[in-house]
Protein: ABC transporter ATP-binding protein
Organism: Demequina muriae
Amino acid sequence: MTAIVEATGLTKRFGRVHAVEDATFSLDEGGIHGLLGRNGAGKTTMMQLLTGQEFATEGEARIFGESPVENAHALRRVCFIKESQVYPDGFKGKHVLRSAPWFFDRWDAAFAERLVRAFNAPLDRPMKKMSRGQRSAIGVIVGLASRAELTFLDEPYAGLDAVARQRFYDLLLEDYTAHPRTVVLSTHLIDEAANLLQRVLVIDDGRIVIDADADELRATATTLVGRAADVEAYAVGREVLDRTTLGGIASITVAGLSAEERRAAASAGLEASPVSLQGLVVSRTGGVEHDDATKNKEKSA
Ligand SMILES: Nc1ncnc2c1ncn2[C@@H]1O[C@H](COP(=O)(O)OP(=O)(O)OP(=O)(O)O)[C@@H](O)[C@H]1O
């Protein structure tokens, strides 16, 4: 496998703010990967460093084996969609889509048209007058239809409602399957996107605190559900990574259990259920935004 993204000791400081600190990781070509972390953790700065939009204070960023800084050749193969995208004055949705093929060699106009219908994007409206969700939809359309070999999506659907977000996940997976490429997605809605992600990078206070295959990460912990009293009794003396109590029912996430420990938990009246990726990330970063509805749904599944 060839590394398509590499960071070596990558550091970005804004005065006394350590936005990205000594980050070293690499991503192989192909796959949908998550860059997760709390507000202000350094996700946007990391993507800006990897796309040459910020200069590193120390260390090195490489894409396609080259520095991205002022590297038009490498950046032609990259699409970076961010929520705070600034458009020229008077630009309408249709102007964004018309100019996209200038920047993206693999732009698929027919797919873009399908996405416009899927997200009900108002192409005749000036970008400045669009709602937050409509602007997000335009970003998502460009991000998907660009088919760029390396696509960075920085909370691209922050303004989209739940139905539109689900449509985005479905379309991303469908199009990725037909046209494999490398996608790096930053999001707070970890459980929603969890099933898409192959690799997970978690950044906390500028530092990479988790760099793992998503399935391997899930296998490092187990969620146990049962009567609150039984759960609490079981938890005594164990490291609990995440804890939820709802009425008389409680769940805890504990570090990987052996088969014997699982049997002991079962005979203590506790049921093992799939671990929430979000729960794991929360436990390592001290509290990423929680989507309790999604979390409860996943835990009861
Ligand atoms: N141009 C800048 N000048 C000073 N500080 C900055 C600048 N850009 C980012 N920062 C700071 O660097 C840190 C990381 O910011 P960044 O935008 O990368 O975080 P983020 O993880 O994308 O956050 P969010 O999820 O809230 O968008 C924050 O503390 C932020 O205030």
About this structure: The chain has a mean pLDDT of 90. The chain has twelve helices and 13 strands.
